[in-house]
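User: For my dataset I need records formatted as: sequence, then structure tokens, nothing else. Please produce one.
Assistant:
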Amino acid sequence: MNQEKNKNIDKINATKAYINEIKDQIIDKQASTLFEDLKWIQLKDISRNKSDLFPIVLTGKGERILLIHGFDSCFLEFRRLTPFLKKNNKLIIPDLYGFGFCPRSSGNQYGFKYLMKHLNSVLDYFAKNQPIGVIGASMGGALALELARQNPNKINKLLLLSPAGLAGKNPKIPWPFNHLGAFFLSQPFVRRGLCRQAFADPTNSVGPAEEQIASIHLKVPGWQSSLADFAADGGVSDCGLPKPTQPLKIILGKFDRIIPKNEKEKTNRNYNSNIEIATNSGHLPHLEEPKLVSEAWEKLKK
């Protein structure tokens, strides 16, 4: 028991050491600011039924908003949206369980069920006295929908940004193909290509700062094994329905090249009246048009 506890402490300390190593090397100034607001919060580690420390950015004052990032990303994804929202809101930006700078403890499992349990533990911690809002980007949009369905009294409104995982069913990727897939995703040319594909205008929008942030979490201990475990579990999919009861807005990037066409069509059919198009965005309206996103949030009534 003590040996397992010591291993988990080592994982947390190794992750903290890596953050301390790289945070002063960040090119993007808004990303650097988010590192300054990073806290370590004691939450239940739902895969082991114990408590551990998890990284969560806390910034701003006012009504609380939980921001949920996308697949194989981290809290830095919200670096350009944060300055707009934190003027009037208290922002809570965790790294998803098994993603970003979240420490990977030995023997843990990583999949949709565990992502949701961890998000519920975050919600329980920060929404004890009154309901809060939720913003989910890409895969985080699907997770936000499910979190809202599970917690109708703790979440008061939702904004989804180019949500992914609302339709279709992902296959479970068996060993060793899950590890091969994760290894492939770690290759610099793949990271660079995906980063460029996510933006509407990569020639003018993607430079060393964007490429650095797209890959900066890959050296967190356990990155490949947790991603492979997530793929073996089937990832996140088919989360679009039923509709949650809370007020909801969806912003879709006009030039999104990440979400498959059939998924876009189904989202449009199911949520047509809730959708707004970000005309200058690809898959990342919170990075490409953060002012539009923040204004949409403020207009969304509870």
